[in-house]
Amino acid sequence: MSKNDNKSSAQTVKQQHDISHPELPFDHEEDNRQLTEQSHEQSPGALLFHNREWDYRTIQSVYTAIEDIATNELALDTYPNQIEIITAEQMLDAYSSVGMPLMYHHWSFGKSFARDDALYRKGYSGLAYEIVINSNPCISYIMEENSMTMQALVMAHAAFGHNHFFKNNHLFLQWTDANAILDYLQFAKNYITKCEERFGAHAVEATLDAAHALRDNAVDRYSRPPRLESRKAQERELERLEYEQSQYNDLWRTVPKITAEDEEHMDAETLEIARKMGLPESNLLYFLEKQSPRLEGWQREILRIVRNIAQYFYPQKQTKVMNEGCACFVHYYIMNRLYDKGLIDDGIMLEFIDYHTRVVSQPGFDQPGFSGINPYALGFAIMQDIQRICENPTDEDREWFPDIAGSNKAMDILKDAWANYRDESFILQFLSPKVMRDFRLFEITDNSKHPYLEVNAIHNKRGYKNIRTALAGQYAIGNIDLDIQVTHVDLNGDRTLTLTHTRHNNIPIAKGEAYMVLEHIKGLWGYDVRLLSIDPTDDEIKQELTTFDGDS
Amino acid sequence: MIQKMYIIDRRLNPKGKSLGNRQRFIKRARNQIKKAVDDAINTRKISDLESSERIRISSDGLHEPHFRPAQDKGHRQRIFPGNKDFTVGDRIKRPPDGKGQNGRNASDSGDGEDSFQFTLTKDEFMDLFFDGLSLPDFIKKSLHKDVSTEQIRAGFRKDGAPANLNLARTMRQSMARRIGMRRPRKKDIMALEEQIDILEQKHAHSPLSPTEHEELKSLKERLSVLRNRMERVPFIDPMDVRYSNFTQQEIPTSQAVMFCLMDVSGSMSERHKDLAKRFFMLLHLFLDRQYKKVDLVFIRHTHIASEVDENAFFYSRETGGTIVSTALEEMLRIIEDRYPAEEWNIYAAQASDGDNLNSDNSHCQTLLSERLLPLCQYFTYIEIWDQHEIEMFPHDQKASRLWQAYEQVMKGRQNFVMKNVSRPQDILPVFHELFSRTHTAGSTAKLAEGIQTGAATS
């Protein structure tokens, strides 16, 4: 799923960067971005549509025209498409349930619905033009109030851009299951509804609250997750209880024995237990699901559901810039080609350029509407620049990108990037000095020990490499998610669970919230929980939070 | 490679998919929302009391905590766009409240805020507003039983009108009987016939062996047995037939009439009227939720009383003396005229500043206790006092003559209550006191006691 929301960019329509500056149609002949050696003259073709309003026949014919360009010129590899038309209210519904077409019930989704609804009604924020689901077939939701131009843009963007990315990027292939996700969500929804009927809405809510608190720490980072099998899930849940119980009895039976043993044996025993429990474990929900002595079978299944859904979104977190960049690149190319072929007229092209400009605008840090780097703008700019470097390299480009400069194989390089990179590596590899200049990027050092921020690098020769490394670092997974692992279970004493947070750049954990999360973990684990925050440079414990001193 | 694309129109799908989530959210945030609703009611205009309400609640208990990095500590390299005149080595004063960190984290989650605003629908608003309030028990007991009835489903029966034939139930009975009586299935008979057919075909071409003859014979015998049985056991027997059954259920009258009585003589200022209006409004909204239909009757009085429309009731000016009994008489006349007590639940709310012609007080007393109260479900009297009066006079001198007379009426009665208010903020507590479930949950004695203490403290 990817929201093409223009919340961040809706406020400023003005352009800041010439890279994303729209080519006005009458300039278009000078445009040298075309990948294929086709004529740039607008050839007289029959216009696909004149009207602002869309209808099914027009959508179908525009889709066919877009598909022709996408498959024959760009040679994109996509899942079959399914386009669904929804109302603004349904869009809000989808918003509130993390963009998925169906989701189990939880108050937090109601909360985000209430907030989005209020913001939308007051006009503070617009709605996404589309939502696209990484599933097979690939489902794109488009809004009924979009104009026909917008529908064309959205189809090119979502049904081909995002779709190609989903089907080819290695992270999505490795971590998500496009074939099974909708079935699995259906199963999750039914399962949680049944739990609410049997065990009461309150108990289910408490479990979900706790699981949601650990959502960010519920990903198998180092192994491919097993495939989702919703049909078998029910049976598995039944078997689970017996299996877990037998395994877990076995484990706990060792406890009294250990206390009788010598100290030395105890150390060995502790190691053995850690090994049996699979410690250290970075997937906190997985650990609790498998090892918590307190949970009922249905609670374990709920943890598993939350975990699986978090897993599904894991690649999206790491590819926001690339995913949106890919979709923007594709829609920009396709819309321009439609215009070249004479399938859309000047008016529609202008309307498209207006939308496009707003989507890929990047306000400066001191401008209203600034909310960080706009992934649409950054991704689109880098990809457009790759094309420029391939086709019209400067000396600088030859120095920076000897492999690709002037190669005239832009599409091959882009497709390779879409398939094999993530944001971090993509930026590190492809962010060119020109894009840094266009964005006027600068780096500051923010050290909380100093009362000031220091400018570390700007877009000049000395600064390019610094900026590129630092920007890539911002998208590194270590920077997005905290590294927290279950490291110890005190089976000889009071069963306290110890989590260890390994600090990145000496950044501590926000205390207030951490205590709340620890309480949730305590609820799932059944005993006290301790969180240690250590500095990996000297292994010194910098912070210790526990559930038994939660008030301090 | 051209793939098939499907367009699906989802716009007609059922609406309100997130309703379940919304209800869970409102339940979760109930305390905060209730507080916001009560605050809202004190500040908003009466005229839009019954519209939807935008409220702002604090996010206590609505927090979705996660492990997050502390925003203001540690060492970070940050990249920003839009450099204008910075050069390497420039030092920038740290922006207050972490504005400089805006870029990365502040906008990607909405959880940081202390409060957030959203809109309650009218129904949700009213539900919360009247939460914990209900009609006193004794009123429920004496709700007027009317002749009006409702048809409800009541199981099945063996006879009835063909229109009420319940096919599903009939077929169920029939199937049970067919299985019980071992009615041969059509499939079995057809299989037999087929076997016989095959043998006979064979017979037509060549003579059959003795074993085949035997087989043919036994097959034919079995077939005739099955056919017989099939004829004897019908597919649907009259004893299978079931009809849906309906019964009439009496439902209590669901109509009420609310009389608003107000003194509009010179001594009632705009402020008095505003307070009275707030009370009438609340009562009307409350009754509206209890009954299917609520009629409103407005009676204003000076030294004469008349029935008027709502606008005239609240906004037109009258001069004259003050004789409360005229309004009571008018009310009595209207009840006799249009609202027979056996068909209508009658409620009355009277608002006054307590002024009355001294000689009229005893007349009011008798009118109320002997004629009106026996007809009424509930009669509330609101006396509006000026703020400075409350401050000026000691406790026992505050009561007006009318108040004193009404106090006599109240003794031993459950369906008459009186309260005084002096500020808009008092209206809601007074209203809550009149209808809160704690007063009415137990016995009526408890209610009377509540009213007694309420009166004693006032």
Describe this entry's structure for a reader.
Chain A is built from 21 helices and 10 strands. Chain A is of the alpha+beta class and 552 residues long. Among the domains of chain A are: 157 residues, no CATH class; 101 residues, no CATH class; 69 residues, no CATH class. In chain A, strands 1-3-4-2 form a 4-stranded mixed sheet. In chain A, strands 7-8-9-10 form a 4-stranded mixed sheet, with helices on one face. In chain A, strand 5 and strand 6 form a beta hairpin. Chain B folds into 3 domains: 50 residues, no CATH class; 84 residues, no CATH class; 203 residues, 3-Layer(aba) Sandwich (Rossmann fold), CATH 3.40.50. Chain B has a 6-stranded mixed sheet, with helices on both faces. A two-stranded antiparallel sheet of chain B has the order 2-5. The N and C termini of chain B lie far apart (86 Å). The interface between A and B is large, with 102 and 71 residues.
Largest sheet of chain A: 4 strands, mixed
- Give me the oligomer status: heterodimer
Largest sheet, spatial ordering of strands of chain B: 10-9-8-11-12-13
- Integer average pLDDT of chain B: 76
Number of helices of chain B: 17
How much β-strand is present in the residues of chain A? Answer: 5-15%
| Bulk shape of chain B | flat
CATH class of the largest domain in chain B: Alpha Beta
Distance between the termini of chain B: 86 Å
* SS content category of chain B: alpha/beta
- Poorly predicted runs of chain A are 1-42, 256-261
The counted number of beta strands of chain B is 13
**How many structural units, i.e. domains of chain B?**
3
